[in-house]
Design a protein that fits this description.
1 helix; 4 strands; mainly beta
Length: 95
């Protein structure tokens, strides 16, 4: 996947981040690889995961916030974004 900025990058999403709202009518999505480490141990990884986005871009920092919010990850610690790419709905394999 191509990146908008050098990756991987690690972020610590803040508690005040705007919540993620899925929009099935959005034209674009972000397809990404990421890892969320938990403050109490363990982690989850995502490969080729898709989230709806408004507009045609998203920053890696905002993506980290969206991942934590969309998955309702309590005790989320650092989020590492390994790859991200903007794709148009229907122009990728998601079934």
């Amino acid at each position: 996947m191509s990146a908008l900025s050098p990756l991987p990058q690690t972020f610590r999403p803040g508690l005040a981040a705007a919540p993620y709202q899925a929009n099935p009518a959005s034209v674009n999505r972000v397809k990404f690889d990421a890892r969320v480490d938990f403050t109490n141990g363990g982690y989850v990884e995502a490969r080729d995961f898709l989230l709806d986005i408004e507009g045609d871009s998203v920053t890696p920092e905002r993506l980290a916030e969206m991942i934590v919010s969309a998955m309702n990850l309590l005790r989320a610690g650092p989020v590492t974004i390994f790859a991200m790419k903007i794709v148009r709905r229907g122009e990728h394999r998601d079934s």
